[in-house]
Write a structure and sequence with these properties.
CATH class of the largest domain: Mainly Beta
Number of strands: 24
Shape: globular
CATH architecture of the largest domain: 3 Solenoid
Structural class: alpha/beta
Number of helices: 3
Number of domains: 2
Distance between the termini: 49 Å
Radius of gyration: 17 Å
Largest sheet: 8 strands, mixed
Strand content: 25-35%
CATH superfamily of the largest domain: Hexapeptide repeat proteins
């Protein structure tokens, strides 16, 4: 049996747990700091806090952080690594990932996502439902590519950046660390780090 520990008992965590089971993980449990006031996340059991997980890492074949906030996920992923965790990479069986793409440890690829040749995803990324990441895109650590996003070829996305639902990004554009691209935006030029852009074409708020 393969045992997976998920840190973060959210709705996002449910999708990760479902993806894990469909990918062959036979025993999936959660750790969440709301425990013991919360003991379940849907059908899955919450068995302790983040502190308990750090103490019990040796009991699991893999661990992953299921926290939507990019900055928190980034810190928690680094914390697990510092404590010797084996970070799992999960790919939904209904996703399409090129054999020539690289998906970093602790990242998840959900149903309907398409990741093309030469794409490279860092630690703790979220490639959400139905997104597409085209050839030679480079996504740094703890990036979130939301449902329905379209990244054209050669796009670069910095650490902890978030591309909102349904947005599209022109080829070869760079999105800086900690930037946010609003839902439905069309990004046709570089986005500097730490700002939010919205609209068609996307402009800084």
């Amino acid at each position: 049996m393969k045992h997976l520990a998920i840190l973060g008992g959210s709705g996002h965590g449910k999708v990760i747990a479902d993806t894990a089971e469909l990918s062959g993980w036979s025993n999936v449990v959660f750790f969440d700091d709301a425990w013991p006031s919360r003991t379940r996340n849907g059908k899955w059991e919450i068995i302790g806090t983040s502190v308990h997980l750090l103490q019990r890492l040796h009991e699991f074949d893999g661990a992953i952080v299921a926290i939507g906030d990019n900055s928190i996920r980034y810190e928690k992923t680094k914390l697990l690594l510092e404590h010797g965790a084996t970070l799992s990479t999960l790919v939904h069986p209904a996703a399409t990932v090129s054999a020539y793409a690289t998906i970093g440890a602790g990242s998840v690829v959900f149903a309907g996502a398409v990741i093309n040749a030469g794409a490279c995803v860092g630690l703790g990324g979220i490639l959400n439902t139905g997104c597409s990441v085209d050839h030679d895109c480079v996504l740094a650590d703890s990036v979130h590519i939301s449902p329905g996003v379209r990244l054209a070829g050669g796009v670069k996305v910095g650490d902890r950046a978030w591309v909102g639902i349904g947005a599209c990004v022109k080829q070869m554009v760079c999105i800086g660390a900690d930037a946010i691209v609003g839902a439905g935006a069309a990004v046709v030029s570089d986005v500097v780090e730490g700002i939010t852009v919205v609209g068609v074409p996307a402009r800084a708020l």
